[in-house]
Amino acid sequence: MAEKELTEAGVVGGWYLEINDQWPGQAMGIKVKSKLFEGKSDYQDVRVFETETYGKMMTLDGVIQSTQRDEFSYHEMIAHLPLFSHPNPEHICVIGGGDGGVLREVMKHPSVKSAILCDIDAVVIEQSKVHLKHLACGFEDPRA
């Protein structure tokens, strides 16, 4: 029996395979335990998986956005570098970041009096609050 040729991101044989024209000649594979959510917002396809070694993972239009195992490397750097370079950051606006990870990191700064997150896709925010609670916890901060 011939192997199915995968030409776009999806789950094949228990593996999530990210294949995208943005990265010609390469692919990313992560072993999946289960699919937690699959839906289409007004803007993009949204999926959340439980993986074998990367914890929970969100993909948008077939591109891995975040995994529980390594999300900190993005969220910490994008939040803390600008906040530590400002003498007294008090009012913060996060553009995008619907998974909540940047907001979570922003809320770790005691000088922050208020923070607002603007994201075009309510489905990403909603599913992050349901499945990616380790990221979305910043939404619960009263200053947010």
Sequence-ordered SSE layout with sheet pairings:
Layout: E1 10-12, E2 15-19, E3 27-40, E4 45-51, E5 56-60, E6 63-67, H1 72-85, E7 91-95, H2 101-106, E8 114-118, H3 122-131, H4 133-136
Parallel strand pairs: 7-8
Antiparallel strand pairs: 1-2, 2-3, 3-4, 4-5, 5-6
How would you characterize this protein structure?
The chain has 144 residues and is of the alpha+beta class. 24% of the residues lie in helices and 34% in strands. The protein contains four helices and eight strands. The protein is elongated. 26% of the residues are buried.
SS element count, helices: 4
State mean pLDDT (0 to 100 scale).
94
Q: Which structural class should the secondary elements be placed in?
A: alpha+beta
Largest sheet entry: 6 strands, antiparallel
Radius of gyration: 17 Å
Count the E strands.
Answer: 8
3D shape: elongated
Low-confidence stretches: none
- In spatial order, strands of the major sheet run 1-2-3-4-5-6
Gap between N and C termini: 54 Å
In sequence order, what are the helices and strands, one letter per element?
EEEEEEHEHEHH
Share of residues in helices: 10-25%
